[in-house]
Amino acid sequence: MHIFPTISAATRAFSELECLGSDYRGVYYRGKLPNGCQPVAVKRFSAQFLSSQQVLDKRRGWCCENHQTMVVYEFYPNGSRDKWLFGVGVLPWSRRLKIVKDVAKALSFLHSKGLPHKNMKTTSVFLDVSFRSLLGDYGFVLSSYESRRFEGAMSPKADVFEFGVFVLEVVSGRKRLEDGQVSTEEGKDLLDFAWRMHEVLEIGLLCTLNETKGRPCMDELVEFLDLKRDLPELLK
Predict the structure, then answer these.
(1) pTM of the model
(2) pLDDT above 60 for 185
(3) What SUPFAM superfamilies does this protein's entry cite (predicted)?
């Protein structure tokens, strides 16, 4: 366990210059502990508490003092996965598929131990120096209100739902709408967008059937795209 002054000094009093990023649960800072040759990442929580110490990523320690909770992680130079999905540059499909597989294996391990993740987001997935995915930010409960709100929902099946949303984000390159955000034509709800993508992909597959008699004509395709006609069942 680390004391507050140690972590404050390591992050230069939580300087904005050391800020690595944030999510709705807290802010990440780069830091260097006394006698440490490797940098660490510190996540600072406000009005929160730790409900689990079981880990998958490498945590160096934690501090709960002055009504604040902080966790010290190993520093991952490539940051969290959301920076690569929604930031500058495009990840190739092979790497995106590797992301999904790595996270699925991590969640499977947690569930095999009877532990739900509780916070499955793109910001919970980190990249080490070799671009291997590591799953963090699990086992946290923000408040007694949130605990009551999600009581019974913090189960492996809830993780499966969040994993599904994560997969859609990875494949589509679009973020989910957070609470309070308004859906617009440009920023549709992720699930609606994904189902629309699914329909368009089916249309593409219909057009490329080996049997020419199964391919629709262009008039039918226009009606499919305008949602004026139901798509036929697609057979492999």
Answers:
(1) 0.57
(2) no
(3) Protein kinase-like (PK-like)
